[in-house]
Amino acid sequence: LIYHWLLSARWLGLIYHWLLGALWLGLIYHWLLGAFWLGLIYHWLLGAFWLGLIYHWLLGAFWLGLIYHWLLGALWLGLLNHWLLGALWLGLLNHRLLGAAAWLGPICYWRGEAARLGLIRYWLGVTIRLGLIRCRFGIFLCLRGTTSDNHFARIHFP
Length: 158
Known about the structure:
The chain has helices spanning 2-7, 10-19, 23-33, 36-46, 49-58, 62-72, 75-85, 88-97, 104-143, 147-156.
């Protein structure tokens, strides 16, 4: 576990876990994290990647989901994960501090930049959208008011 998590040996981990069927390591993994029965259903009976995502997202295992996405190198899913969950600070820690491997470092850096830009674009979009709603609502209130309010609306909202 230390070897796979800390050293980020993605390709070796994938070959070892997926192709060689390391059942005992899967059991240790799930016993230590406390998800034994769901781990059995997930790994033995279903073996479904999509169900694993539902498991991590719906059951609230946020940190476990991040480990899962880091090891499997799901770049596009990682971006969705960071954008939708708004984990800006955790994303920065992930991409800057944990990207120790030389080949993983640039990927993590690009993901971090894209996530940061995505959040900035989202915040700007929400701010602009809220500003337009407030502006339109202000015009509506002004146009319903008295003559002085209408004069204010013509000056400030051409």
